[in-house]
Design goal:
Layout lengths: L2 E6 L4 H12 L6 E7 L4 H10 L5 E5 L6 H11 L4 E4 L5 E2 L3 H12 L3 E9 L3 H7 L1 H10 L18 H14 L12 E4 H6 L12 H12 L3 E12 L18 H13 L7 H24 L8 H10 L4 H4 L4 H11 L3 H22 L2 H10 L7 E8 L8 H13 L5 E5 L12 E3 L4 H9 E6 L14 E4 L23 H9 L4 E4 L2 H10 L6 E4 L13 H11 L7 E6 L7 E3 L2 E2 L7 H8 L3 E5 L18 E3 L6 H6 L3 E4 L4 H5 L6 E4 L3 H8 L6 H4 L4 E2 L2 H9 L1 H7 L1 H11 L7 H9 L2
Parallel strand pairs: 1-2, 1-4, 2-3, 6-8, 9-10, 9-12, 10-11, 12-13, 13-14, 14-15, 16-19, 16-21, 19-20, 21-22, 22-23
Antiparallel strand pairs: 4-7, 5-8, 6-7, 17-18
């Protein structure tokens, strides 16, 4: 049995590598891969030359700038296999897909064999690294995921009606909406395509699969599925610069949707069960997606010509279908048949209000957002109110703290300060008002404050009003690749880049600690609309305070750290692939504290400070006189003052700690995975860091025992590092920030 794999190339080379690599990894000989391209260039030639060594790769040249339908049809013209398989060039396969599908097809003599599509935003290497738990979670959350599992245990007879029902169930009914009716991950007997002259409709850019699948459902006689044959449908995490076809914003999509639906139903009889499920998806589109456009869109054509178009389609909806719809859906269709726009708008308003009420009752924060959008945002802005937030209300710290204290000291009585802190017992100096994040008061102050000083992104539902001023301090000089410089988004929402793109446009000012940071921020945040303040970090002002030694002595006493011991700060970051849930990461301590105590305990103690994303608590039972967990202490800048040595990994803490010119070690036991798979770095850690990279606890101990030799070895590199990253910091960054923003 021979398979022709048809791969239309869309121009994204870094996706194509995973696609072809996954074909190579199938280890099946009798496969021809037809790569359909519309131009030769140096990069595509590199791919062809590389993979022709491993797979039977044939290149088919298409006319310039043709759509995927044209390319697939060219592939069908050239295919010589007994079966055909479509694979998009930005997707990839897990091992064993072809052997599983081929075995099932040959054993049962099937026309069609389906695998499972799994939605992901990860490249192949990251997908495999993340593991099944996180990948399944992302797939479950995706609204476009298939529902194959629903039909696994459903019993079908061998009779013709049941066989046809199974085909329709798997090809059409299991897909969410018309846009997800797809030919992907289906092994298709080539003779069916040839006998019935099946081709993709080349007039369609977004919905070309629909009519092809409808015809497959009509003309095929047998189907089965293997849910272990896994096809990874890779969504693009950068819809701004490299959008997938489904992510393109195009006003003509609606017209094509209608045309594709009409073309599809023209291929089947009105009483056919295929038509039944197509109409079902149309009604759901009208009552779910289209209804919101009627209510919310600023463009009148959703309520005029497009509404008229949908009404004409609702005229033909079958009565037996409506009986299985919800009361709301039946009413919507009835009003459409009567061309009653006014009552349609009222019905939609009631339905959306009911849905919103359910969300409010389920989550009280929804009501606060509602008040923000519909009440508070219409009230006057208070011109002397300043709102501060660090790390989602988890601490009174970082650059906003030092800007706040400078303002309070130097402009007493001029401003009303609002601090976002989730701890009910929190206390701050200078009589600032404390509000908890996402409460009603939070929404109120978010709407009415003139100034905002945040070190993270603002809430997604925030909309900066005319007259409001947003100062984004960010929270560190970047080592790890950020935002649009990340190939993979492994530690945030898959829609992170799209969210970031909108949010950064509301930043009037962005602080950079050095020129390196300002250059990176302009790139990774695509920050061009606001003002970059290359002024040093306000949070580092304390490190230059004239009384810093006195502050350190008091803090050491407060934390009950022995005054006669030197301190080793261990401040690791989180790992993107060690994951509990949104914003919560696992962390397993890799330092052997028992060994460190044995070797270093006479002279040193260890301060443990984990990232605020890490949910695990570090257990120091039995080591209380040696290991002090200071993770809950608000301000890490103050912790720097009492630290004689800093051990970290990929956290940005070392850029700040370097201001003190004290020794640093880098415990990078997993650097290959973190650098090459999870994140990637902006600097070469092996060549540019002002201290050694160590990989075991024994190496850590040995370096500390020979600390003088280490300092001498890295002295020149430390000076170069300091000049590059710390030279602007001088204790006056807060003053410069205030003078720039508050005039």
């Amino acid at each position: 049995m021979k398979i022709s794999v048809i791969v239309p190339f869309d121009g994204y080379y870094h996706y194509l590598a995973d696609c072809l690599e996954s074909i190579k990894d199938q280890n099946v000989d009798d496969i021809e891969t037809l790569l359909i391209i519309d131009q030769y260039d140096e990069k595509i030639n590199e791919f062809i030359n590389c993979y022709q060594k491993y797979i039977n790769l044939k290149v088919v040249l298409a006319p310039s700038d043709v759509n995927v339908a044209v390319k697939r049809n060219l592939g069908l013209d050239e295919a010589t296999g007994d079966y055909v398989y479509f694979l998009d060039s930005d997707d990839y396969l897990m091992p064993g897909v072809f052997s599983r599908l081929m075995n099932k097809a040959s054993e049962e003599n099937l026309d069609l064999v389906m695998g499972k599509r799994w939605i992901s935003w990860f490249k192949k290497q990251v997908f495999e690294t993340m593991g099944q738990e996180k990948n399944e979670e992302l797939d479950r959350k995706d609204k476009d995921r298939d529902r194959n599992q629903r039909f696994v245990e459903k019993e079908y007879d061998n009779e013709e009606n049941d066989a046809q029902q199974k085909i329709v169930d798997l090809l059409i009914r299991s897909r969410r909406g018309l846009k997800n009716v797809s030919v992907l991950n289906i092994l298709i007997r080539k003779s069916i395509i040839d006998e019935h002259h099946l081709r993709f409709c080349e007039n369609f850019l977004y919905y070309s699969d629909l009519s092809f699948v409808v015809q497959l459902a009509q003309y095929s006689h047998s189907i089965d599925q293997d849910l272990d044959a896994l096809y990874v449908k890779r969504k693009h995490n950068d819809p701004i610069n490299t959008p997938a076809l489904t992510q393109i914003k195009d006003e003509h999509k609606f017209d094509e949707f209608i045309d594709a639906y009409l073309h599809a139903i023209s291929l089947v009889e009105k009483e056919n069960k295929i038509r039944y499920y197509l109409d079902s998806k149309l009604v759901k589109y009208y009552t779910n997606y289209f209804a919101k456009r009627i209510r919310r869109s600023q463009n009148d054509y959703w309520r005029e010509e497009r509404f008229a178009t949908m009404c004409s389609l609702m005229d033909d909806v079958r009565d037996d279908l409506l009986k299985k719809m919800s009361s709301y859906q039946r009413k919507m269709v009835k009003l459409a048949k009567n061309r009653d726009l006014e009552n349609t708008k009222r019905l939609i308003a009631r339905h959306l209000a009911k849905s919103k009420l359910k969300r409010i009752l389920k989550n009280k924060n929804e009501f606060n957002k509602y008040l923000y959008r519909h009440k508070y945002i219409n009230e006057p802005i208070e011109k002397n109110w300043v709102m501060f937030e660090t790390f989602m209300g988890k601490s009174y710290a970082d650059s906003p703290k030092y800007i706040y204290e400078y303002l309070a000291k130097n402009y007493p009585g001029r401003y009303q300060f609002i601090w976002v802190l989730n701890d009910k017992k929190a206390k701050i100096p200078y009589d600032g008002i404390i509000v908890k994040r996402f409460t009603r008061r939070y929404a109120y102050y978010l709407a009415k404050s003139k100034y905002f000083v945040f070190n993270i992104r603002q809430p997604l539902w925030f909309r900066k009003r005319e007259g409001q001023v947003f100062l984004e301090t960010w929270h560190g000089t970047p080592l790890k690749r950020l935002a649009f410089d990340q190939e993979e988004v492994t530690a945030a929402s898959p829609t992170y880049k799209a969210q970031f793109y909108r949010q950064k446009q509301e930043w009037d000012f962005l602080i950079a600690a050095n020129k390196f940071s300002s250059d990176i921020f302009k790139s990774c945040f695509m920050y061009t609309n606001g003002q970059m303040l290359e002024i040093g970090y306000p949070r580092n002002d304390l490190l230059y305070a004239p009384d810093k030694d006195e502050i350190a002595a008091k803090l050491k006493k407060k934390l009950k750290i022995p005054a006669d011991k030197k301190t080793i700060l261990y401040a690791p970051t989180w790992r993107d692939d060690e994951y509990y849930g949104k914003g919560q990461y696992k962390f397993k301590l890799k330092l052997d504290l028992e060994l460190m105590k044995k070797e270093l305990g006479q002279d040193y103690v260890v301060l443990l400070r984990t990232h605020h994303y890490i949910a695990d608590k570090i257990d120091v039972s039995g080591l209380e006189d040696f290991a002090f967990n200071v993770s809950k202490y608000d301000d890490i800048t103050e912790i720097y003052l009492i630290s004689d040595i800093c051990i970290t990994d990929y956290s940005s803490v070392f850029f700040d700690f370097a201001n003190l010119k004290r020794p640093m070690l880098f415990y990078t036991y997993d650097i290959d995975k973190y650098r090459d798979v999870l994140r990637g770095f902006y600097i070469d850690m092996e060549k540019e860091l002002p201290g050694p990279l160590v990989y075991t606890t024994q190496e850590v101990v040995d370096q500390i025992k020979n600390i003088d030799e280490m300092n001498e070895k890295y002295a020149q590199r430390y000076e170069e590092f300091y000049d590059r990253f710390c030279s602007i910091d001088d204790g006056h960054a807060s003053q410069r920030a205030v003078e720039a923003v508050f005039k």
